[in-house]
Design brief:
The protein contains 15 helices and 15 strands. It has 454 residues and is of the alpha/beta class. It folds into 3 domains: 240 residues, HUPs (Rossmann fold, 3-Layer(aba) Sandwich); 133 residues, Four Helix Bundle (Hemerythrin (Met), subunit A); 47 residues, no CATH class. The strands form 5 sheets. A 4-stranded parallel sheet has the order 4-3-9-10, with helices on both faces. A 4-stranded antiparallel sheet has the order 5-6-7-8. It has a 3-stranded mixed sheet with strand order 12-11-13, covered by helices on one side. Helix 10 packs across helix 13. It is globular and about 75 Å long. The mean pLDDT is 93. Bound molecules: zinc ion. Zinc ion binds next to loops.
Length: 454
């Protein structure tokens, strides 16, 4: 049985779905105003692996992840660039999906856009006001956290300690410094929607609670995101559901930071690496392997060394699959003992480092069997490698990397253009390759392509 850490209890506990055999999960998606960074890449991979593992275990999974397409940052960028908010949002949503596709992350079953749910959000805020849990001020409508029993659960702090630590702003009409905006009244130059409190827009925490409950129903199974979202974002989503008397997520799953040189990666520290930049240098599958090498709740160190290490581990996997294909091994079922060890590791709060150890054990044994000229012994081990890799979302080389002559000609044309510093022609060849469904990488040996996978 799967056991998962639950931020609400601070402990690893059995995962018990609302409906037998089915899992409803909501993972907070991106605010689309900039290119994604390595932390985004980590969270989409962690929850992609959880989703795939649940499916591998026999569950039917409904996976919802939102797109926040209205927010201060989007408005700022639109104003600075003289464009509309929706143009900015659409551009960066396209960048988002291109990057997550390159990581082999399956797209959500539903990706609700906040702007499509504003009426529902107004409805929720109205009900919260009617229940006496929310109040209007000069600049918006706020939730009164004192009306929510147990506020602070996901911060693992009491309301008293949160209040004493909160910054009190001058001229603040809020009843408590911890109260948060459900609705923001319009300011000049901002997009707005009608409401009983005049034109304005929803607060971020109201977006996710409305979309999660609408699409997954009360008491859905898993709410996930990066650990920086646990408080205040997730706690504030939860508080609105509690104030409405509705049951919310049964299990809260949060992944850890990305670290660069021992420090948390963040824009303010200037050690911020974009996922798009990484994917130009590194196979998306290698980043998946790197993410899997750390437990999802531990910090993840991304350095040239750890990335190179993951790339060479990926090569070992690809090489085995190619070698097996060349030797035309007999068909075989995966090794049952290895599958059991894999399941035990993953059931233990998604212990992917231990799961990878099972996978690479099978790689070593398969290579030894092939070295010893024992194809019958190698076959079930290779089948195990394929099965476990697929369960974790790794498509191994040799299966789908065949490059047709047209593609090979485009690759050659691109390398020639680059050698001649004809960047326009190089870009045109790249665009054509991307349009044909290839991921294009620049390596010291020239252009490399591989099939894009969803
Ligand atoms: Zn959210």
């Amino acid at each position: 049985m799967l056991r998962l850490h639950d931020t609400a209890t601070g402990a690893v506990r059995p995962f018990e779905p609302r409906d037998a055999g089915r899992v409803a999960m909501y993972v907070c998606g991106p605010t689309v105003y900039d290119v994604p960074h390595l932390g985004h890449g980590r969270f989409v991979l962690v929850f992609d692996v959880l989703r795939r593992y649940l499916e591998w275990s026999g569950y039917e999974v409904r996976y919802v992840s939102n797109i926040t397409d209205v927010d201060d940052n989007i408005i700022q960028r639109a104003n600075a660039e003289g464009r509309s908010e929706s143009e900015v949002a659409l551009q960066y949503e396209a960048v988002w999906y291109e990057a997550t596709d390159a990581l082999g992350v399956r797209r959500p079953d539903v990706d609700p856009h906040a702007t499509a749910y504003v009426e529902h959000m107004v409805g929720l805020v109205e009900q919260l006001v009617e229940r006496g849990c929310a109040y209007e001020t000069g600049d918006g409508v706020y939730l009164s956290v004192e009306s929510v029993p147990g506020y602070g659960l996901l911060a693992r702090q009491s309301l008293d300690s949160l209040q004493s630590g909160a910054r009190v702003e001058v001229d603040d009409e809020k009843r408590s410094p911890v109260d948060f905006a459900l609705w923001k009244k319009v300011k000049p130059g901002e997009p707005s929607w009608p409401s009983p409190w005049g034109p304005g827009r929803p607060g971020w925490h109201t977006e996710c609670v409305v979309m999660a409950l609408d699409l997954l129903g009360d008491g859905f199974d898993i709410h996930g995101g990066g650990q920086d979202l646990a408080f205040p974002h997730h706690e504030n989503e939860r508080a609105q559901a509690v104030a409405m008397g509705r049951s919310f997520a049964r299990h809260w799953v949060h992944n850890g930071w990305v670290m660069v040189g021992g420090e948390k990666m963040s824009k303010s520290l200037g050690n911020f690496t974009s996922l798009v930049d990484l994917l130009e240098r590194v196979d998306g599958r290698a980043y998946r392997l790197l993410v899997l090498r750390s437990h999802y709740r531990s910090p993840l160190e991304v350095t040239p060394d750890t990335t190179a290490d993951a790339s060479s581990a990926l090569e070992r996997l690809d090489n085995l699959v190619r070698r097996a294909a060349a030797e035309a091994l007999p068909r075989a079922a995966p090794d049952v003992g290895a599958l059991d060890r894999f399941r035990t590791a993953m059931d233990d709060d998604l212990d992917t480092p231990a799961a990878l150890a099972v996978l690479f054990d099978a790689v070593r044994q398969a290579n030894s069997a092939l070295d010893a000229g024992d194809p019958a012994g190698a076959a079930p081990l290779v089948a195990t490698v394929r099965e476990l890799a697929e369960a974790m979302g790794l498509v191994l080389g040799g299966d789908d990397e065949a490059v047709d002559p047209d593609t090979a000609a485009l690759v050659a044309a691109r390398d020639e253009a680059r050698a001649g510093r004809d960047w326009a022609a190089a870009d045109a060849a790249r665009d054509e390759l991307v349009a044909r469904g290839w991921v294009v990488e620049d390596t010291p040996a020239g252009t490399r392509v591989r099939r894009r996978r969803n």
